[in-house]
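Translate sequence into structure tokens.
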Amino acid sequence: MAEGNILVRLFRIKDLLPMTKGSIRITNSKTGNIVYEKENAFDISGRSEIISVVTIDRELSQEPYEESGNPYLLYNIEVKSEGYKDVIVEGVSVFDGITSIQDIEMEEASIESGEKNLQEEIIIQDQQGVEKSTENIEMGFSMAPFVLRNVYVPEFITVHLGSPTSYAENITVRFIDYIKNVASSEIYPTWPEEAIRANVYCQISFALNRVYTEWYRNMGYPFQVTNSTAYDQYFVKGRNIFENISKIVDEIFNEYIITIGNQTPFFAQYCNGTTVKCDGLSQWGTVDLAKAGMSALDIIKYYFGYDKVLVRAEYVEGVPESYPGYSLRIGDVNENVKVIQEQLNRVSKNFPAIPRIYPEDGRFGKETEDSVKVFQRVFNLTPDGVVGRATWYKISNIYVGVKRLAELNQEPEIGESGGNGGGIGKPEGDGKYPGYLLKYGARGEKVRELQGYLSEISKSYNIPNVSVDGIFGNGTKDAIIKFQRLFGLSTDGIVGLATWNKVFEVYKNIDNSNPGVPDNEFDGKYPGYLLKYGSRGEKVKEVQYYLASISNQIGIPTVAADGIFGNATREAVVAFQKLFALSLDGIIGQYTWNKILEVYNGMKY
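Result follows.
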């Protein structure tokens, strides 16, 4: 059989706060067979590996839908992360040669309300829009009496998940994500590129017509579009999108159709052209025309008339600086380069895989190119290191989002919760050892105090969170063992004087704005010689602290900061080098040291 791919991206907040801890299980929707399963499945940017699965040959998606079956296979994705509700997505469609991207936002489970075992289910209907037999009702304006002053691309659009008069949920999504969802829901990603582009232009124009004419707002509705195909375009909450469609939308999201002499975005009606005929564009007809060599604009003119042209909105809402009109690349020196450098450096605080650029001097050198390439890979753009229109606007959108998030005091997951829940407030207590051992079965205020310290520590170090209930149960014992192993103590799960003092010391050294190790203890400077198996000393201890802090966010082994470069440290270094495409020798030279420090520093904000 043919093969397609699945990419899962895990977030606390989509495109702004990646999550790095979680497991994935993928099953065939029809048979229930497990086709992929992995613990610690996400990298530092919240991305899984590209997962290959079998599907149907793409040739079956080049002709209208037959009763014999769909030209794709469906898969279910289950994601689990400690401290969060499990998420199950049912019905992820996979096409031959196409990468399906499934974004998942995790919600914290409330320990107090007993939500630990609850799960969220997202069910994607087993039908693409092109397979539907409904037709868009002729409800739109070419010219309208009540319109906005200028055409612009909104940052967000509000979608009513039903017909206009139905009682249904309203959700607000980014306009660009709305178009990606609609395009992935309406057509097949295996179609010729010019056919896909023609359809996307129609979808953008249709949506902008609704926004510009304020069609639903003028009728008193609190939304701008619906997802009913009898009135608007097919939108499926929580569904996967397709990588090639995503790239096309990123490139043309602010281009739309008009009639010459009329600035109103054209109300571009369409239908599938097989089970339903209409006066507008035939979705299946675009496939034949594209195969015959017609461009997207030619296809649009074929269906809507030769007085139709494509224009670009001058204003994109939410973007601080408009695209300069030309690509930025290595060798360029100007203020636009400086804008990109500043924005990438801010985004890298939330996505530390993106290398920082020093200095921010407006010179597009190798450092800037490398940073752009990593950004492009993280956000599913073509990784060519050139800042074209799509990359410019994507950087700007993510930059605005992370800045806005910071203003709401929801800075990166890094240092916020470490993926382990929380929300108990600062622990109360005097920090003094009680004078007796705390172990499994113990109860009381000193146990509660200890648990409070552990809960705070878990936000910055890779140990499990615990319930602060004053009862020393298995959860507390497990957290103590992990803590003891991390800090080179005897791993007996019992809190004696040495363990108590270390717990309190680590807790006191934690600064919420700088998780991990206090800066004044280390200088961050490369020692000038290789650190490798058998090395000892303060510089080994320093790098172990950095690695221990990093391990809280990405899937590398935890190490004890004991100043001894043993097997555990070597394994952690190799895992780090593999993750960041460095030489896999388990030795810390200048390149590996600098990258470790860069990633660690990126987690401090």
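Note: The first strand starts at residue 2 and ends at 13.
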